[in-house]
Design goal:
Blueprint: H1 2-14, E1 22-26, E2 39-42, E3 48-51, E4 61-67, E5 78-82, E6 93-101, E7 116-122, E8 132-137, E9 140-145, E10 152-158, E11 164-172, E12 179-185, E13 188-196, E14 207-213, E15 222-233, H2 239-242
Length: 247
């Protein structure tokens, strides 16, 4: 009997474990902001830095600082991380997660048409962008799409300041009405659109970016936003595989 039990245990230990297809993690625990496997798009050395407060999990997070006098980078003022090197397949499920901390002193731009882009999915080949974006306008989160060649507001949510906001997105990118996306805000589904156009007709799906893009103007001289717990996962993954940790 003992030998049978030991044989079963040995077979269990030798059986390959099928792990979720987590493609990338940037939690800032190992190395600086330039060692997270993402491109940095900023004009100044202090625009994107690693900090030990506030943090969503672990010991470190990323701080982005954008000023009104910052030079433009790629035709716009920005302090962003970009995952543009990754090949994203069309008609395939992808999971994305990001935690965002908006400080109390964050101010929205005076022009209501020029909202701050915090989390976005950009086309690979120059079509209308972004395909999907999470923005800040006044005292609201604004989720928008440009996938059908025109601006559409998907939903608005109250903006939380001085606390972490957790975003999880499951997206299937398609230039035909076969795509879809589901968006969780602090663990609650706030968007669920299926059988829709989610991307411009191109060979690959959009790449993801996060940080600050055009969040300042002559009336808002500077803004700071913090980020943590960024993950991308493939079709065999689940919400739990990308959701932020609670340690």
């Amino acid at each position: 009997m003992f030998r049978s039990v030991m044989l079963i245990v040995a077979l269990f230990l030798l059986t390959p474990i099928v792990r979720a297809q987590v493609l990338h993690t940037a939690d800032f625990e190992q190395g600086g902001v330039d060692e997270q496997g993402l491109k940095l798009q900023s004009a100044n050395d202090d625009a994107i830095t690693r900090v030990d407060h506030p943090v969503r999990a672990g010991k470190y997070a990323a701080k982005t600082l954008l000023r009104v006098d910052d030079p433009k980078v790629h035709k716009g003022q920005r302090a962003e991380f970009s995952d543009s090197r990754r090949a994203i397949k069309m008609n395939t499920d992808y999971w994305y997660a990001l935690s965002v901390f908006i400080p109390d002193d964050f101010r929205s731009r005076s022009d209501r048409h020029k909202n701050a882009v915090i989390f976005q999915w950009h086309t690979q080949q120059g079509g209308p962008s972004p395909m999907l974006a999470i923005r800040i306008r006044k005292d609201h989160w604004l989720i928008t799409t440009h996938a059908e060649g025109k601006w559409r507001v998907i939903t608005e949510l109250p903006l939380e300041k001085a606390r972490w906001t957790d975003w999880v997105i499951k997206a299937n990118w398609s230039p035909k009405p076969t795509g879809g996306w589901t968006i969780w805000h602090n663990g609650k589904v706030v968007v669920n659109e299926q059988n829709i156009i989610t991307d411009y007709p191109e060979a690959q799906g959009p790449y993801v970016k996060f940080g600050q893009y055009h969040s300042v103007d002559e009336h808002v001289p500077a803004n700071t936003v913090y980020f943590d717990e960024f993950r991308i996962a493939g079709p065999d993954s689940t919400y739990a595989d990308v959701a932020p940790r609670d340690d």
